[in-house]
Amino acid sequence: MPERIEWLEDGTESGAPYSPRFDDRYRSELGGIEQAREVFLAGCGLPAAWRDQSQWRILETGFGLGLNFLVTWAAWKADSSRPKLLHFVSTEAYPASAADVLRSALAHPDLLPFALQLQAQLWGLLPGVHRLVFECGHVLLTLCIGDAKAMLKQQRFEADSVYLDGFSPPKNPDIWDVHTLKAVARCCRRGTRIATWTIARAVREALTQSGFILKKTPGIPPKRDNLRGEYNPPWEPKKPVHHTATQARRPATCVVIGAGLAGGAVASSLARRGWQVTVLDAASAPAGGASGLPVGLLVPHVSPDDSQLSRLSRSGVRLTLQQADALLDRGSDWDPTGVLEHRTEGSSKSLPRAWAQSWTDAAADWSHAATAAQLEFAGLTNTDAALWHPRACWIKPASLVNAWLNTPGVTWQGNATAASLAVTHDGWQVLDVAGSVLAEAAMVVIAAATGSPALAASVNPLPLALQAVRGQVSWAQHEAEQQGLPRFPVNGHGSLFPGIPGPSGLRWMIGSSYQRDDEDLAIRPADHLENLARLQALLPATAATLASAFRTEKIQGWAGIRCATPGRLPVLGRIATAASGAEVWVCSGMGSRGLSFAALCAELLAAQLHGEPLPVEYQLSQALMPRLRPALRSALAA
Ligand SMILES: Cc1cc2nc3c(=O)[nH]c(=O)nc-3n(C[C@H](O)[C@H](O)[C@H](O)COP(=O)(O)OP(=O)(O)OC[C@H]3O[C@@H](n4cnc5c(N)ncnc54)[C@H](O)[C@@H]3O)c2cc1C
Q1: DSSP string, 111-178
Q2: CB under 6 Å to ligand 1: residues?
Q3: Are 410 and 271 spatial neighbours (Cβ–Cβ below 8 Å)?
Q4: 563 CA distance to ligand 1 centroid (A)?
Q5: Is pLDDT at 6 greater than 60 in this prediction?
Q6: Among protein residues, the one whose CA lies closest to atom 4 of ligand 1
Q7: Under DSSP, is residue 494 helix (H, G, I), strand (E, B) or coil?
Q8: Which of 31, 36, 105 is CA-nearest to residue 71?
Q9: Which residue lies with its CA nearest to atom 38 of ligand 1?
């Protein structure tokens, strides 16, 4: 359940939010908006401090009803010298409902447009890190749901400003104790400014002990004082290695090899941060590889132990949904219909056990047992085990790739087959098979799916463990009112997509065959029959309706090659660093989940490059970023 909030009469439109858990009000006697502006923004010298910076990273303890975020976002939007990227990271152990967040903003009409956008993204807030994206990716809110100390340990960035908020120290001492404040200090650089409304002696002592220099400043009556400070310890802070390894760097030039989901997402994430990106591809048009799949599913993976794959897939699904919503045409490029997962071999009891005990509402936003009506719509019965994924959708991958390549700062170049990389004094050249230079830049990202190992081998002898897996889908046109088709996609062992708009009407599509180490793109009649057999297990009634199409020339096919890793997670990491510091990265191995993983990998890559807050917990990010090194610094320098 979301946190219970009581709204007390105070003469305002919304009322005053009160927490029965902490027996305290959410807002100061000043009202939340004045506190946000005077105590936090002004207390951290904003907006002046962020002017003409490429990005600004704010850390807040206690998201509450999100007013500090909304006020900061509004100030960023109003500032013509704003940074290109605003990161706002906030911890919250007891997230409020989206409805309460919106209600709290009702009293401030200028914040309402921002609050409505925030409210729309406040769903599925299970414990862990959630990345919410606004302003086409230029305002990034990272919500860390859980105990502040534990969540701060899962972050690896240096904050530029810190807002210390939360219920009053006597009511919620944990968030003000020396352990939490030391965890905050670990996220600071020398000069990071902090601000808070409490001047409690214990808080001041804990802050001083953590390395902050403090000063009291006059408050707005009736409040006498606020606290401002700066991280400037008299000792040399012991920064973990990753802090030095991820020094924020300036945007430069980058060549991305591969114009599929992986390459398109990387190009867009870097370009949003100010990089000039050239995307090369062997094909004559973008999405010429597996990303040319006519339509694919974006659906969270579910497992009883909520495995790394499951958690990463949810983070990826959220990010891709935001991209689809911002960039694609609903109904023709994608549709958030929800997806039924028929567990032909398992049962719907395989939802994570922890979800049943608590967090039921947030969990149900992601996945829950299918209802009788949903089963019936799919021609299944109450005895069939099935999950319903309310946020899942179908997407045409090529539309997303093209939208990403349209990001300002991205240049696309087709008919460009890369054969190797060569180091220069300040970057890398991409060469074709004849040794001619196709492009050069300060950085290269290899996102060429099964073409990646050969390219990577030209800079790093360690082999990339990637496997080609052929897949064929079967499709045919259908009438708008075709009987026997569900209204939404169904997956499980295979998948069915009904009602997908094509150039000459609606289509259904059934997928997909799965043949390892097979790179043949020819359409095979035997694979059509395999797909029909899959449908017979998945949706017997629908299979009976569609079977006749398989005996006519109506049936058509598309085949592509997935690029998979042994562990079913993508591979993302730096594989070479030249003497100049110019790096080569690989972003590949999307397997059967390119729609779930491409945007996530791209944001992780960009976050690592710029020392930004991560879109997932640090430990999860490491599952995607295996140590592919050693970097060949010395060899390349020779
Ligand atoms: C039948 C089938 C069904 C699928 N269903 C789904 C689904 O429902 N949901 C889902 O999320 N995913 C699905 N997938 C997986 C998804 O399509 C992939 O994960 C995704 O498209 C991979 O994107 P990518 O950019 O890594 O690779 P690709 O799209 O293959 O892009 C790689 C690009 O690199 C280029 N390239 C290669 N070598 C070179 C070189 N040397 N020089 C220049 N360019 C080069 C290629 O031309 C290609 O354009 C399916 C895949 C198949 C085959």
Answers
A1: GHHHHHHHHHH-----SEEEEEEEGGGTEEEEEEES-HHHHHHT----EEEEEE-SS-TTT-GGGGSH
A2: 257-263, 280-283, 288-291, 293, 296-297, 397, 417-418, 447-449, 451, 455, 471, 473, 511-512, 560, 562-563, 588, 590-596
A3: yes
A4: 7
A5: yes
A6: 592
A7: strand
A8: 36
A9: 451
pLDDT at residue 634, as a whole number: 36
Closest ligand 1 atom to 495 CA: 8
The rounded mean pLDDT for the chain is: 92
Per-residue confidence band for 638, with pLDDT thresholds at 50, 70 and 90 = very low
597 CA closest ligand 1 atom index:
11
- Domains of the chain, start order: 6-244 (3.40.50.150), 246-288+398-466+567-637 (3.50.50.60)
Locate 146 and state its tokens: 């859980």
- Among residues 416, 450, 458, the alpha carbon closest in space to that of 436 is found at 416
Helix 261-272 and helix 397-405: axis angle, to 10°? 30
Q: Say how far residue 339 (Cα) sits from the centre of its chain.
A: 20
* pLDDT band of 501, cuts 50, 70, 90: very high
Q: Which atom of ligand 1 is nearest to the CA of 590?
A: 19
Ramachandran area for residue 264 (φ above 0: left; ψ -120 to 50: alpha; else beta): alpha
What does the pLDDT look like over 354-399, one tens digit per residue?
887 778 899 999 999 999 999 999 999 988 999 999 999 999 999 9
Per-residue pLDDT reduced to its tens digit, 33-90: 888 999 999 999 999 999 989 999 999 999 999 999 999 999 999 999 999 999 999 9
Tokens at 120, concatenated: 């729309």
At 246, the amino acid letter reads T
Please report, as a single letter, which amino acid is at residue 339: V
**Ligand 1 centroid vs 633 CA: distance in angstroms?**
31
Calculate ∠ Cα 538-399-572, nearest 5°: 80
